Amino acid sequence: MATGALVSEQEYLNTTYKPGCDYIDGVLRPKPMGTRKHGLLQAQLAHLFRMGFPELEPICELTVKIRPGKYYVPDFAVQRRDRVQDPYPTEPVHLCVEILSPEDSFGEILLKCEDYHAWVSK
To answer: What is the pTM of this model?
Structure first.
């Protein structure tokens, strides 16, 4: 569900939202609040990547810039340690994972996956 008032890109980047929000052309799209299972899955993924792939940096809830005016907060992301971008990536990371919640719309998740794919393909 989106908020009613438009938010500037600068305001979005300078504000902490709980739960996290995706940002699309001035509109905030709050992500569902993570559940216990959601958090456990994020922790397990991070552990697996840390143990098996030391050259990769696993990150939970990382804001990524898909294009000007569009930011997503994937539940889990992975990027190479030699390509770390601060404070948020503007170039594609190696992996973005969205952990589905009961409140998630399949159509919205599919659109996000298409956006992630287009981001990598640019």
So the answer is: 0.90
- Residue position matching structure tokens 């981001």: 119
CATH number of the 35-121 domain: 3.90.1570.10
Q: What φ, ψ does residue 42 adopt, rounded to 5°?
A: -60, -45
- Pairwise CA distance, residues 74 & 58, whole Å: 12
Reading the chain (122 residues) residue by residue, the pLDDT tens digits are 455 679 999 999 999 998 899 999 999 999 988 889 999 999 999 999 999 999 999 999 999 999 999 999 999 999 999 988 888 899 999 999 999 988 888 899 999 999 999 998 87
Buried b (16+ CB within 10 A) or exposed e, 29-62: bebeebeeeeeebbeebbeebeeeeeebbbbbeb
Domain ranges of the chain: 35-121
